[in-house]
Write a structure and sequence with these properties.
Elements (H helix, E strand, L loop, with lengths): L1 H21 L5 E7 L4 E2 L3 E10 L2 E2 L4 E8 L5 E9 L3 E7 L8 E7 L13 E8 L10 H21 E7 L7 E8 L5 E9 L10 H4 L19 E7 L10 E7 L6 E6 L5 E7 L4 E9 L10 E6 L24 H7 L17 H9 L9 E5 L11 H5 L7 E4 L10 E4 L8 E4 L2 E3 L1 H5 L6 E7 L14 E6 L15 E6 L26 E10 L5 E7 L7 E9 L4 E8 L1
Parallel strand pairs: 2-9, 22-25
Antiparallel strand pairs: 1-3, 3-4, 3-7, 5-6, 5-8, 8-9, 10-11, 11-28, 12-27, 12-29, 13-16, 13-18, 14-15, 14-17, 17-26, 19-24, 20-21, 22-23, 24-25, 29-30
């Protein structure tokens, strides 16, 4: 009997400990890997924020906030990013007229700012080169603290990742190719920077030294909600009986993108939650209550956007860390580092999509995608002001002649279209199905979303279209200017995530591209490199600048189990 009592007592103790462990609060620690250690006024700063939860890589999404301050502590920009798989790509454009020798960067999450002060923020200083300032020296305390344990940690990193070289060239604009290989058998999140070594300034930060190891004792307050994605919470002030079994329809509309349209339920407490939204900058959220009662019935609504999207936390210059100082290793390094390329010296490649590219991706497929064509967005006030599509196209496509049999009747007669001579015959497509011209002419212009005019020859037709073609696409019902008929949408302005401008290095594949002057100090930057056991290898390709003969490569990251990774070496 006594043995049975002891057994049950042991079970209760284990259950109690398990319950206590299950209730342990989560805690966050953040670290920022800067693509390079010093920037110039007018340059874009590239960084990667790593987020660990309970000292493991945080695999769930979480909102990360980054604030940029000048040397005096004045807030320059408050940013919000969505971190996924433990990392967030961030950037900041240094003002062209910035006159101080450094910027302050502060990163945090909703959980981290509810911890004790020492663990609330990832605070870093980003030096900004100023030609009128005297040379400064490296803070010895930073160097010593990093040097003390770096050898052991570096050796461990060698067991976690491996580098394999494929090709290497230090000629002007020469191509380099090598691979990063994951040896852990686990998921790893990495960032890689390649810098010309001739102008390299040692960074005062390292993931091995500055990523903090924490415990549940640092937590001061647990947030009331999970801060991930964009969330809008609303409460109706009407009688709960009226709101039973009702749904809230919402439409997230942003110019140049296809909107999100969906429904969410109203709870017994008269509340609803719209979450898991991802937008950049700002957008308009339309909300309508779907009820069986009279459609014109009014409903009082309170709403709030969850998250710290509006302002940075209030405080007065409480960074609490010394300002590191940097020394140029030689006068030559100082001269090279001080060089800021003119706007016409480096080729800039953009990956942001225009509204036409969005429409192209949405509507076209197969041989209709791309090609020698001109596209038109028909969902603009100017486009829908024309009586038909041919009147709209008239004079807008170089080389395409459009006339009408009855010019006196407001151009509503039969249109004639040709490129070179009146014997040319274009072919017409409606939603990529070949139709007669009359079908296109009688189409209501308000129903048209996108038009592509293909120059001759066009190969998308069954028997070919040697004289070109016009492809017309009708709306699918979810376009950006679409609002359901008879709706009573309440428009709510919401703020989205900060737009990240990805790093894009030049591609020197032709002599024309090689004619530009290239004195980049940051040769390559890979901010989100995810390696798994199934896909453990990633190839890195980049081109040299015009002068460098030595490249410094720095790899930092976190394994899913929380192991920190840093590997640094010289290519020469």
């Amino acid at each position: 009997m006594r043995i049975i009592k002891l057994f049950w007592l042991l079970i209760l103790v284990i259950a109690g400990n398990t319950s206590l462990n299950a209730q342990q609060p989560s805690f966050h620690s953040l670290y920022a890997h800067q693509a390079k250690s010093v920037y110039g006024a007018g340059e874009r700063i590239y960084s990667k924020i790593y987020v660990r939860q309970n000292n493991r890589l945080l695999m769930q999404p979480v909102n990360v906030y980054v604030d940029w301050y000048n040397a005096e502590g004045l807030l320059l920009e408050h940013q919000a990013y969505l971190a996924q798989k433990g990392g967030a790509d961030i950037n900041f454009l240094v003002p062209k007229q910035y006159a101080s020798a450094f910027l302050r960067m502060r990163a945090y999450t909703l959980i981290s700012i509810n911890q004790i002060p020492e663990f609330r923020y990832c605070d870093q200083v980003v030096p900004v080169y100023q030609s009128n300032l005297s040379a400064v020296v490296t803070d010895s305390a930073y160097n010593k603290s990093f040097k003390a344990g770096q050898d052991t940690a570096m050796n461990m990193s060698n067991d976690l990742i491996m580098i394999t070289k494929h090709s290497q060239s230090f000629d002007a604009k020469g191509k380099n190719e090598w691979s990063v290989i994951n040896k852990t058998g686990d998921f790893v999140n990495l960032s890689v920077s390649v810098i010309e070594d001739e102008t390299y300034l040692p960074s005062v930060y390292s993931i091995l030294k500055d990523s903090k190891t924490a415990s549940s004792f640092i937590v001061q307050k647990s947030p009331a909600y999970t801060d991930a994605f964009i969330q809008v919470k609303g409460t109706f002030l009407n009688d709960p009986e009226v709101l039973k079994n009702t749904m809230v329809s919402f439409s997230l509309m942003k110019r140049g993108t296809v909107p999100i349209i969906d429904d969410v339920p109203v709870t017994d407490t008269r509340t609803f939650l719209i979450d898991r939204l991802v937008i950049n900058d700002s957008a308009s959220l339309g909300i309508q209550l779907n009820t069986r009662k009279k459609k014109n019935q009014k409903f009082a609504l309170q709403f709030q956007q969850l998250g710290l999207f509006s302002d940075a936390p209030a405080y007065v210059n409480d960074f609490g860390y010394p300002l590191p100082e940097l020394r140029f290793q030689s006068p030559q390094a100082r001269d090279l580092a001080s060089y800021v390329p003119a706007e016409n010296e480096v080729v800039v490649y953009s990956t942001s999509k225009s509204p036409l590219q969005v429409l192209e991706d949405k509507y076209t497929t197969g041989l209709f995608k791309g090609g020698d064509a001109i596209g038109f967005n028909m969902m603009t006030p100017n486009a829908i002001s024309f009586p038909n599509i041919f009147q709209f196209l008239r004079g807008k496509v170089p080389g395409l002649q459009i006339s009408f049999d009855d010019q006196m009747n407001a151009g509503n007669g039969k249109p004639r279209l040709y490129w070179r001579s009146q014997q040319d015959t274009l072919k017409f497509f409606l939603n990529q199905m070949m139709v007669e011209m009359e079908v296109i002419q009688t189409l209501n212009i308000n129903e048209i979303a996108f038009v592509k005019v293909f120059r001759p020859p066009f190969l998308g037709a069954a028997l070919g279209a040697p004289n070109g073609a016009i492809a017309v696409y009708t709306k699918q019902g979810d376009e950006a200017n679409y609002i359901p008929k008879g709706s009573m949408l309440a428009q709510i302005p919401i703020k989205g995530f900060t737009t990240y401008q990805p790093f894009i290095g030049p591609q020197y594949n032709s002599e024309k591209q090689k004619s530009v002057i290239d004195k980049r100090k940051l040769l390559h930057w890979v901010s989100s490199l995810h390696l798994t056991p199934e896909e453990p290898e990633f190839k890195i390709n980049y081109f040299n600048n015009d002068r460098s003969k030595r490249h410094r490569v720095i790899v930092e990251g976190v394994q899913q189990n929380g192991n920190l990774i840093r590997k640094e070496w010289i290519l020469e």
